[in-house]
Amino acid sequence: MSDLVSYRLEGDIGVISVNYPPVNALGQGVREGLVACLRQGLDDDQAKALVVIGEGRTFPAGADIREFGKPPQGPALPDVVAEYEASDKLVVAAIHGTALGGGLEVALGCDYRVAVDSAKVGLPEVKLGILPGAGGTQRLPRLIGAQKALEVIVAGNPVKAKDALELGIVDELIGGDLLEGALAFARKLAAGNAPLRRIRDLQAKKEDPDLFSNFEKSIARKQRGFKAPFHCIKAVQAAVELPFDEGMKRERELFAELLVSPESRAQRHVFFAEREVAKVPGLPKDTPKRDINQVAVIGAGTMGGGIAMNFANAGIPVKILEVKEDALEKGIAVIRKNYENTAKKGRITAQQVEDRMALIQPTLSYDDLSDVDLVIEAVFENMDVKKAVFSELDRVCKPGAILATNTSTLDVNRIAEFTQRPEDVMGMHFFSPANVMKLLENVRGEKTADDVVATVMDLSRRIGKVGVLVGVCHGFVGNRMLHKRQAEAIQLVNEGASPAQVDKVLFDLGFPMGPFAMSDLAGMDVGYRIREELRKEDPDNAPPRNWTDELVEQGRLGQKTQAGVFDYKEGDRTPVPSSEVDALIAKFREEQGIQAREVSDQEILERCMYVMVNEGAKILEEGIAARPLDVDVIWIYGYGFPVYRGGVLFWADSVGVKTIYDKVSQFHKETGNDVWKPAALLENLANEGKGFYG
Ligand code: 3HC
Ligand code: NAI
């Protein structure tokens, strides 16, 4: 018998206890043990009722995802759940931690569920591109009604114990010790001869005749491209319309279809990649970390304010420094307004607004920074200004303080040399808006110490970010690839495509918006200033002038001026093609002697995407990113690359590295442009018939 699940008698109640760290996932051994222990409990004459509980940090948090895609080994989870439901002794699930997915499904096979206040329950399968496949879609609607079940299953978000009680998923909250409480609960039921409560025997209610079609419409935009949410709706519909066993059959079919879908493979890849990025190759897990209890941010502009909010949100006191009083006041006012808007939406309370503001301490004096453990500089993107700031930080900060820069284009190694302690310096590249975007590119300099890297990677998670370690180069990983794509998008328009056509191709691939809508959102002047700077400093390597420069010079800066590559109506972010811009493009082509040609959607896709894949391969080759998964996580969390395609390089594998390499070589031959010079890594993989992921 499996030793991952054990049975014991506590007085007159049998206890089935799962012990499979870290999250008691329902792997084969656990499933086998659950069945064996149930049978033992049923055979135990002294046991009047049974309690199922998880040891360690949680009730089972779901099926064992590592088993997906491997040959199934019995007993199957739906059968395990069915056996619990068929028990003729009362079974109580005692929940702490996170009863997710298959874990909650096991609990739904029990007659009753009790939970501690801090517990969460949920069916997050949709986030892995699948649906609850052990009866969750059939039992939850029967227990709480179709509308509520749809909300829980399709969003896939965990439900707090208190809300689960209100919904009727949980029957009682346990204040003290969970096992004691669950035993008492089971004893009370047994003493009162409480009837069995098999959810399968309940009728699922549909409160609104158009529920399913309306629900589908309500998620269409947000879930564009995903398959699982729509299959979830079909499965819940089956719970309402079909008898239980037929509904289970339908759930199984839909589950099986999703399990082998490319969307689910990609989403599972992202699940593990997101966790894997935290483990830095070559950096031992036990690398010591510095204590970070007090932080400072330099600059209260667009980025500085958002960065400070992350720390306040995590309960970490943060000082924010500006040179001028008015800039400081303005920055603080923006932070307060952001919090107040969040409170208006009901996401935080008025008290939380005040608590967080109290953690943010404005200052005009560097001398106030002598006690901080970490400083993040977010001042103007200018080397002289950075130099002034880092010299000052070097003067005032205590030994061992980490000095980080949020620069997006400057050389972190040079910045480190402005101090006497380059080993304490690294980049922390937040994405805008910094309080919202989950990605944090942590940039390791040549001299950055291991414990500084380990501390910053750990801190990323503490403030709710996905931290990815990258090396120093222009644009790091994300923007370096993005700039190549942007240049290609502009070139495609030069040759004859329209901005709207280019944007549509990338939108259809699953990006939230195309390259031109994105530059309108970010502000066209940002890229313009960088190009102009380059043209002054390094004219030989600067990009040639094009029609986007002209747009900026005419004051078309993007959404903020209601005109950029596209036009915008007041209060509306929808990009509208502009005849004025069309005329500018035509004029540019004429000046350059370019005869506009028809550009196919396929060519747009290949040029915009393959240029990024090739650059990604160069980034790996140079060691700027350690693994393909680091690049993929950056694109998903920094640029909204569709999760159901797994990231730029995971997507490249689905196209075929050889196919991409051939095209890259062809474009290189045709254009002679260095960006198309195939990366050696790409060439090797193509020759070996491999993908980035083997
Ligand atoms: N299967 C296998 N491994 C799992 C797992 C699972 N369901 N859930 C978590 N793990 C692993 C993680 O990969 C990680 O491994 P590592 O230490 O080697 O990197 C370890 O457990 C700890 O996980 P986290 O770092 O995520 O720990 P947290 O404490 O931050 O979060 C959690 C815990 C909330 C349980 C989170 O891990 C989570 O959301 N897990 C996935 C839950 C889920 O999706 N369940 C549904 C599975 S599908 C299913 O049940 C199908 C069924 O309907 C048939
Ligand atoms: P910003 O112009 O909005 O803010 C800069 C702030 O720094 C201003 O409030 C200014 O008063 C202050 N400042 C200037 N010199 C200072 C000094 N010596 N001491 C203290 N404060 C000083 O700029 P933004 O956009 O916030 O950018 C800041 C940094 O973040 C730059 O390095 C930029 O490259 C980087 N970054 C910007 C992103 C963006 O989308 N805006 C994204 C990622 C990084």
Automatic annotation (TrEMBL):
Q: Which residues form a coiled coil?
A: none
The segment(s) forming the 3-hydroxyacyl-CoA dehydrogenase C-terminal domain are 475-568, 604-690
Question: CDD domains in the record, alphabetically?
Answer: crotonase-like
The reaction(s) annotated as catalysed by this protein in its Swiss-Prot or TrEMBL entry are: a (3S)-3-hydroxyacyl-CoA + NAD(+) = a 3-oxoacyl-CoA + NADH + H(+)
Q: Which residues form the 3-hydroxyacyl-CoA dehydrogenase NAD binding domain?
A: 294-470
Q: Which UniProt keywords apply?
A: Fatty acid metabolism, Isomerase, Lipid degradation, Lipid metabolism, Lyase, Multifunctional enzyme, NAD, Oxidoreductase, Peroxisome
Pathway(s) it belongs to:
Lipid metabolism; fatty acid beta-oxidation
On whether Acetylation is a keyword of this UniProt record, the answer is: no
Q: Is the keyword Zinc assigned to this protein?
A: no
Q: What is this protein called?
A: NAD-binding 3-hydroxyacyl-CoA dehydrogenase
Per the UniProt record, the source organism is: Alloalcanivorax profundimaris
